[in-house]
Amino acid sequence: MNLLIINGPNLNLLGTREKSIYGELSFEEYFMQLKKMFPNVEFEYYQSNIEGEIIDKLQQRGFSVDGIILNAGAYTHTSIAIADAIRSIPAHVIETHISNVHKREEYRHHSMIASACKGVIAGFGLDSYRLAIQSFILPC
Ligand code: DQA
Predict the structure, then answer these.
(1) Helix H segments across 14-118?
(2) Which helix (H) or strand (E) holds 128?
(3) Ligand 1, residues 94, 99, 124: which to mutate, most atoms within 8 A of Cβ?
(4) Is 22 designated active site?
(5) Ligand 1: which residue has its CA nearest to atom 7?
(6) Which residue in the list 22, 46, 75, 129 is annotated as catalytic?
(7) CA of 75 to the centre of ligand 1 (A)
């Protein structure tokens, strides 16, 4: 199985950014743990702060990977274009968030992309990514 993890804006700063919300680990450190947890999964990782680059990646890989774990960061709350890209590809996408966006500012409560995704996982810290991966391995 091959899975693509896409992180959107500011998630390159995990480990230094707002540690009380997002924790102390960089994504690169966590990614090494993930690869050990799922030795049979072939992972690709992509991060971009640019909306159009995230759309390009969804279009480029969304016809060949088995699934996509997408943390679109703040674009979650604004991007019709990312939602359209998700609807344009056959790969299932899981919207994933480190924080529980529903416990935070009201502008984070709405997702523009959730209705285009297979499911949403939020609020489990970095473990949200593991849970999203797990959902592809044991589909219900
Ligand atoms: C986030 C939540 C978003 O509201 C925020 O803009 C982020 C990170 C999360 O993983 O909790 O950048 O997607």
Answers:
(1) 19-22, 27-37, 51-61, 80-87
(2) helix 127-137
(3) 99
(4) yes
(5) 73
(6) 22
(7) 9
Sort 95 into a burial class: Cβ within 10 Å, 0-12 / 13-18 / 19+: buried
pTM of the model: 0.97
From first to last of its 140 residues, what are the pLDDT tens digits of the chain?
999 999 999 999 999 999 999 999 999 999 999 999 999 999 999 999 999 999 999 999 999 999 999 999 999 999 999 999 999 999 999 999 999 999 999 999 999 999 999 999 999 999 999 999 999 997 55
Amino acid at 97: H
Residues with CB under 6 A from ligand 1: 10, 71, 73-74, 76, 97-99, 101, 108
